[in-house]
Design a protein that fits this description.
Layout: H1 5-29, H2 88-91, H3 95-99
Length: about 150
């Protein structure tokens, strides 16, 4: 039996409306959303929060299998732009052997079509797009995430 197209559209619209109303009711029960900026209008200036100290000396464990490794050292004066990437000075092959630094993953040497390159592909050039400094900063938004290893 073939269902008429208008019936399918009405059913989808009804389902979407119910989902939106349920989400709104759930949000109202948990209270208003609090901004991380505080009670400051968008056109007002406020001071930047203090920068958390970097956690150095040991590497943090990964929370999930494909997580990009955290950066265990300061990078605030590193230059990364379209011409220069100072991360490569220590982490690109063969410099990583001389510096005793972890080598960049082989995935960073393949372009979007999977073609192996001799240099880091431009789509993986901006390291801090995925990799962040590890810190002991306070949690900004609570969550109940448990990594796969600890969930067992």
């Amino acid at each position: 039996m073939k269902i008429p197209m208008p019936s399918v559209i009405v059913a989808l619209a009804l389902g979407f409306s119910i989902a939106v109303l349920t989400a709104q009711a759930s949000a109202q029960e948990s209270g208003p959303v609090q901004s991380l900026r505080g009670v400051i209008e968008l056109d007002e200036l406020n001071e930047a929060p203090p920068v958390a100290a970097l956690k150095t000396g040991r590497r943090f464990d990964k929370a999930y299998r494909q997580q990009p490794p955290l950066i265990p050292h300061k990078t605030d004066k590193y230059q990364i732009n379209t011409k220069v990437n100072q991360c490569l000075r220590c982490h690109d092959w063969p410099y990583n052997v001389q510096e005793g630094a972890p080598k960049i993953s082989e995935t960073h040497y393949a372009d979007r079509n999977g073609v192996a390159l001799d240099k880091v592909t431009r789509s993986r050039w901006f390291c801090t797009q995925c990799h962040v400094n590890q810190t002991d900063a306070p949690v900004l938004v609570g969550n109940d995430f448990v990594n796969a290893v600890n969930a067992r």
